[in-house]
Each structure stands twice: as structure tokens, then as C-alpha cells.
Amino acid sequence: MAIIPLALRSAKLFRLLPALSALFVLVGIAWLLVLPLDDYSRRTYISENALLPGSVHTYFAGSEQNVFQAYREEVKALGRDASSDDIVARIGDIFKGQGLKVGVQKYKYTASGKDYEGKNVYAVLEAPRGDATESMVLVAGWRNMDDVLNESGVALVLALARYFKRWSLWSKDVIFLITSDSRAGPQAWVDAYHDMQPQNVSPLPVKSGAIQSVVVLDYPTSSSFDSIHILYDGINGQLPNLDLFNTAVSIAGKQMDIHTTLQEMYSHNDGYSSRLHTMLRGMVNQGLGHATGPHSSFIPYHIDAITLQVSGHGYHDEVSMGRLLESLFRSLNNLLEHFHQSFFFYLLLGARRFVSIGTYLPSAMLLASSFTLSAIRLWVQSGRTTTTITPACETPQRALLLPTVFTLLLHLLGAIPLYLFNTTTSTSLTTTFTNFTLLTLLLPIAISYLLHTLLHPTQHQLTLISCISLLLLGLFLAALATLNFSLSFLIAVFAVPYPLAHAAAGRGKCASAFWVLLLQVVAPTMALVGVAKYWGEEVGLILEEAAFGWVVWRMWTQVVVWCVWWPAWVCAGVMACSGWWGKVVEKKMEEVEVREEKEEKKERKEKEL
Amino acid sequence: MDRRSIIVILTAVLLRLFLFTIFPALPDLLTSRVEISTPVTSYKRLKEGLYLYEHGLSPYNGGVFHQAPLLLAFFTALPSSSIITNLVYILADVQSALSLIQIANTGVSASTPLHTSSRKDNSLPAWAVGAAFLLNPFTVATCLSRSTLVFTNTAILTAIARAVNGELLPGILALAMSAYLSLYPALCLPALILLSYDMHKRPALRVSLGVFATTSTMLFIGAIIGLLGLSYSITGGSWEFLYSTYGVHLMLPDLTPNVGLWWYFFIEMFDSFRDFFLCVFQLHLLIYVGGLCIRFRKQPLFVITSILGLCAMFKSYPSIGDTALYISLLSLYHHVFPLMRYTFFATSTLLYASLLGPAFYHLWIYAGSGNANFFYAITLVWCLALTVIVADALYAVLRDEWETERPEMRGKDVMQI
């Protein structure tokens, strides 16, 4: 009929479709679960030979430590809440004293009614051996992501600036950047560096060449540390080249003997469960698409960036960190071209274990195609519910207008919550969310009622609505899987019951009620509450972060949630409750199937005779 | 024209005005999309040419501008306000839709003087055909991007509408205009001659097809010479524009990616083979014309439709606007849709390609994590979907013709041996 005309006309194959669809879901999820095993993941390796990690002797020690401590006292004296003018003046003086070109940038963002403003100060070390076409950036936020004074981080950047200035071996410019916070500041700076700054962000007075890589230092204590926690997720789930991460891990481990961790898995024993947890935590971060550190803002500009964060209490001090950064910058200095050798799409299972895209992508694609299979099944089924009799060799005609318009309108409806949650002020976000959640509980029922009373759709049209909705869901998720695998996978997992809910209408009123209730559990709004629980934060704060991400970081996770996922959910709800007012025609359908099968058997017998 | 057609046209105009005014950044975004704007239709390049032209320089200096000189004269004559420009593009779309509605009203797709389909009652009403063109997202995007392909499409549809009405001269002139603007519509000439011959109003005054075709071809050549002469005088007495416009269509010097199959192929090609494969690729499009005209002699409009569909895949700089034109013409053949076998498959593939194309282009150009193969793979999928639609439509129309001849075979399975 539609796809493989003869094969699908056979009722048996047609009946296999739901089973096949279920199989795809199971295999898709199981696929992800086997990834942490040794056979399906690989050890990381340095792909770009020019990096030569850890092959240089580092000289940052002794007297530099005294300089560092002096800078730290300066930073502490200013304190966490120093005005950005004071910070900029003092840090700018220090940079100038070191003989570097200094620039200051002012920025201001407004998201959900709150102002985020501050000043960035930075210095450019012109490469003695370079031609100012390439640069590397060392960043420290005055306050880190947790709003704590980054005292040793800022001091170490200042000490390294003084130290790097004396070397003649740099072939790329080094930029030292101190941002006044860790969320808006880096974004304002990198936007202005590429002349993409919004209205309230001032342009940069001094610039250098194309940024090759960025390392951010988050060192908010004065005490010694035990291990380094590496952050690597970018905005919208984009990742830096794996070589940069590997270089940092390799230098820390082999040269400095510092343990490295990731995704807040501080006690990683390299067992199955640790690996799985690391991978899932990474997927949640990438799926949400938010900035996990100051480095995240750089990644959308095709700049590879990581944040090094100290953790624990141990015997490593600022000298170890300084030497690590020296060695890392020497490696980056060696790069002949932009990072390109290693992977851009990967899931990290531990500091030295990863899965590449070829291995993990099929799981999301299988999940996405399970929706497409359901859609194909409904398409074939809709061909059997037409009222007109179609002769063989002809495709039955379908009334596509109402289903198409209805589904598209549902998707456009998603613009309302998108607008609502990105513009509401932070004080009323929680109440808006509560009201919206209550409203969406009833929305599918209301839409379904209106649809049935106003438009009187036939069973044929209802089947087509389900078909188009699931087709679009599969379509969007498959396309999304190439851009942000994690988001696509997570949405697909929540959407697994939707095809079943679509089918519920034909199974009586109780089934409808059951599915309407079950759908509430897998609603986007519930997922948001789940995320809030997972982080132990209030929903209002999460929404505020999302609105901030929308305005400042240009996150598009919200678009996917409200214009793809939410409409698919509403549509599933509408279809599930159509069993309450729609006539139950599904049973007749089954009769038709049985009859067809009988006819087929008869024909076969006749042929045999 | 009925009330519904007017509603459709008004809706489409309002939708375009709404998009132009509410999202002022949208037209420029669409203009820079490679799927919509090609080197030979891009509005950005047109502005570059206009700038040079208005400053007394040759617009073809610098090798950026590759569009016909008359467009320059036209846009110079227009007041340089974006509202006026937008209105011109909207009007061009409306004119295209009016032509389509006229074509649909004559019912020529289902019954020509030589053939009347047994399914002609199942044709789409004219307003729906108009809607299929005007409300198609591809058409809307092309209009918003202010691609000059809009004018080519208008000229083609006007030519068909005139030919269907049996008006030979205006039809030929409109086709000459579209061929002048973007070369490839010239392939429709034989079919258009057949169409106007069939639809000629006064059968009593009929001349033989040979004489008719010769006259029409002469008219076409005359019109083209006139247009080229006009262009010659506009560009200050230089034939430079010939190479910069038609030469670009034929020789493919600009390898900017697009939805077609050429750019990647010719990037990869060794220079010594380039000329040979240019000939092969161009001739490939040409060979369909004769065969289709002979096989579908009874339905010349379908020949034009199919050739435009083939052009949307195989011409040197195709864009989604070409596909939009083909799909809207195909909607005239709604009555044979039941005979098409792969509609769901082809439509889903087109949808997949239209989502994955921009995604992979983003990965290649902006994120830097993909490469050119990603995008090229999707253009292959896009062309696969179009191929399936074109081939399936050919099958359906052939089957319909056959069933009309032999009504007893309706609904029976057939097999080619």
C-alpha cells in the first residue's frame, strides 16, 4: 500500500509492526545500558601527535609561589563582594605592571526581570614568535559558578601572566581573562570578541587572533587539593574536541600525578555502575544544554574549552596547578591547526574511557524510528478506515487536511509556554509554573472535547492525527539526535508511552482514563519537576536558569521542549481521551483485519488447489 | 475566480506581510540559507550587482553577481525601499497563484482534447491548487528570502496559463522571459508548443503541427534575441553578461553548496574530466525532453510538470523553490494520486531531508564538528525523495492513461515483461 505495497498488505506483517516498534524501544534502551561495558567503549587516546602532552619540563615553582601568594592576598583583600570597578582597576593595574595590553569590557543582561551586570578585565600577551593570528585564553571568574570568591584561581592567572610574559617560546598569543562572574561574563566577552555582542554589552578595545582553545580555572580555596574535576559540556550539549580533554587528563595524571574526575563522580572506581552514572550525568547536563562552567560559552563559537576545578583535600597545592597549566599551555602552543583530529561527539564514562558517536547514536535513532514505525502502522490502518471503497492497485484516499492543520496548530501552540517562561519575572515564575501545570492537566481533555463537539472527526481522521503527530515526533527526534544526542534520547524515553496512549481510545473508557493519568507522569512539566528534584533545587530556580540561558547563552532546549515534546504530549492526551466521546470504531478495524486474513488463507488454499 | 480562491490569496498575502513585518530578521536569515538562495538567485548577490550597476561599474565585476541584466534595470527603477521590494515579491507569488488557478479551472490536467481521464471528477478544486502553491512552506521561504527564482516561477506559470488558454504569443513570450532569467525553463519549450497547439481555440483555422512548431520556435528565438539585445544595451554595450549569467548555469564556476547534486561532484572532480562531465550532466537533463514529449503526447502539461521536477533535481543550481513549483504543479494531478504507490515514503523522506539538511549544514559550517559529506548525504536523500515522486507520478499518469483506454483493466495488477 504505502511503503512496501505487497508486503504490508499482508495482515501478518502489518500485525508485526507494533511488536517491531516495541523491540526498537527495548533494543534502543538496552543499547545505551551496555555502552559502559569494556567491549563497547574504548580507552581514550591522544589523536593529535603535535600536542605532545607532558613532554616539557615545567619551571613554575619556588619564587613564583611567593608572587602567587602576594596576588592572593590582594584578591582576598578586595573580597567576593568588591565592586566590579574596584576589581577592574586593581587587576588592570597588575596586568599593566606586568607589561601587558589591558582591556576592560562592561556588560549588562536582563533575564526574567533581573539584571546581570559586571565588568570583564583581560590582558593580551603578544606572542614573541607568533603573528597574532591565533590565541589561547586562560580564564578565571572572580566568583565561580557557586558564587564563591575564586581567590586562588584569579591569583594563579595573575601569577601565570607574569610568569608566561618572561618566556620567549609562545607562538600563539595568550589572553588572560578575569570575568566578574562565571555565567554572564564569559558569554559577554566571547560574543564581543566575535563582534556578536547584544546591545548592552560593550565591544572589546583590544583583540588578538582566532581563539584556538580556552582553559578556565576554578580554584576557590586557599587550601591544598586532592584531585581535579574537569568540566567539558558546552551550551546546547555541544562538546569540545576530545583531544583537549585527554591532554588535560594525561598531563594531570602522568606528569603531575593528580587524579582527575568528571561529572561530579568524585569516587569513580571504573566499575560498571560508576561508568553508567558518569555517562548518565553527562547526558543530563548535555541534554539540558545549560552552561556547566565558564568554558561552556566558548564552545558554540567552535572554540574548544574546558574548566579545571579543584576538589577534595590532599597534598597538591597551587604550584602543582600552576605547573599543570604551564604544561597544558605548552602543549596547546604546539598545535599547528585547530583541534580536529579527535572526536567532537562522544560520551565520557570516566576520565580515560569513552564511547564514540558511531557506537551510541543507533540507540537514539532506534528510539526515534520506533515512533516512525508506529506512524507507518497508523498510516496503513487509516487507509483501511476510509468510507469510500478503493479498488486494488490504488492507494486509498485520505482526508489529510484536518489532521495536518490540527497537528501543526498544536505545535504552534507551544509558542505560548515558550514565550511565557522566558519573559515572566523571576518572582512569579513558580506560580506561573504551578498554574500552567494545572492547566495542562486539563488541556488535552478540553482540546479533545472541543475537537469532537465542534469538528466531529471520523475515526479515519483521528487515526491520521495520531499518525502525523507520531511521524513528526520521530522526525524531530531523529534530526535532534544528530545535534544533541542526549536531549533526543531523554525526550524519546519520556515519549515511549505516547504511541500506546494514541491507541488507548479504541480500548474503552477505562483504558482511556488510565492512559490520561499515566500520561501525566511523563509530561514535560513533570520532567521539569524531576530535574528540580535531581538537583535538589526549587522549580522556580530551574526556570530562572532556563530563562537566563535563553537570553544570555542562546540555549534552544526550551524550543525543543515546548514546540516538539509538549505538543506531542498534548496530542497523545487528546487521542487518549477521545475514547470518552468518540465512537469506538477500533473493534471494527480488528474485525476487518481478521476477515482479511481469512480471505488471504482462502486465496492461498484456492491457489494450492 | 471563486470566493475560496480569493480567501486563499488574501491569507497568503497576509501571512507574508505578517512574516515580513513581525520578524524583520527572518528575510535576511533565509537569504543566507544555501537551500533557498543559490549563486544564480540570491538576493544578497542581486544587491551587490545593483550597487555596482548604480555606480556605473560593470555589475559582473568581481564574479559575485550572476543574474540577468533586466533584473538590474527593474530593481533600479523601483524605489529603493524594502517595503516596495517585499510587495513586488508578494505580487509575483500572487500572479503565480492566479496562473495556477486559471490552469486548474480549465481542468486541462485531467482532460485535454486528446485524452480524458476516467478519474477527472477527483481533481482538486482550483482554490486548493492555489493553496498548495501559496501556503507551501517552501514557496513562503523562497518568497521571504527574495530569491529571484520567484520571478522565474511566475514567468513559467504565466506561460503555462497562457498556453492552456490557447494564447500562443503571450505564452511563448512568458516562457522566453523565464528562460532568459534562468536558462533551464527553455527545456519546456517543446511541451509548451504542444500544449498551445492542442489548446488552440479555433480548430477550423488549424495549421499542421510542423508549421505551428516552427513558427513558435521562431517566435521564441526572436523573443530571446530581443531580450538579449535589450540586456546588451542596458549593460552598456557589452556581451560580458552572457558568460556571467548563462555561462555560470552551464559551466558551474561557483561551487557554493545547494540542494542539488552538482557542487560536491565537481569539487571532487579532477580538472581534466570537468568538461566531459559538464557535458554529461547538461545533456542528461536534455535527453528527457524528447522521450517525455513523445510518450505523453496526449498530456503536454504533464511533460512540463515532469521536466520542471527533473530540473529541480538535476539542474546546476537548484533550490527548494524549484521543488515548490513542481509540487504545486503536481497538485493539478491530484486525480491520479490514488495510483501513486510511494506517497507516504516519499513525503516522509522529503520531510526528513528538510529537517536534517539544515542540521547537518549547521554541524558542518558553524559547529565545525561535521564535514561536507554530512550535508551532501542529505542532498542525496532529498534528490532520492524527489526522484521517487517524479517516477511515481509518471507511473500513475501512464497507468491512468492506460486504464482510460482499457476500462476493463481497472483495478487489475499489471506486470511489465
Automatic annotation (TrEMBL), chain A:
One of its GO terms (cellular component) is GPI-anchor transamidase complex. It holds the Pfam family Gaa1. Keywords: Membrane, Transmembrane, Transmembrane helix. One of its GO terms (biological process) is attachment of GPI anchor to protein. It comes from the Eukaryota. The chain crosses the membrane at residues 12-34, 360-380, 400-421, 433-455, 462-481, 487-506, 513-535, 555-581. This is Glycosylphosphatidylinositol:protein transamidase, GAA1 component.
TrEMBL record, chain B:
The chain crosses the membrane at residues 7-26, 70-92, 124-148, 168-195, 207-234, 261-289, 323-342, 349-368, 374-398. It comes from the Eukaryota. It is a multi-pass membrane protein. Keywords: Endoplasmic reticulum, GPI-anchor biosynthesis, Membrane, Transmembrane, Transmembrane helix. This is PIG-U-domain-containing protein. GO terms for cellular component: GPI-anchor transamidase complex. PANTHER family: GPI TRANSAMIDASE COMPONENT PIG-U, PHOSPHATIDYLINOSITOL GLYCAN ANCHOR BIOSYNTHESIS CLASS U PROTEIN. Belongs to the PIGU family. Pfam families: PIG-U (PF06728). It is found in: Endoplasmic reticulum membrane. It comes from Ascodesmis nigricans. GO terms for biological process: attachment of GPI anchor to protein; GPI anchor biosynthetic process. Pathway: Glycolipid biosynthesis; glycosylphosphatidylinositol-anchor biosynthesis.
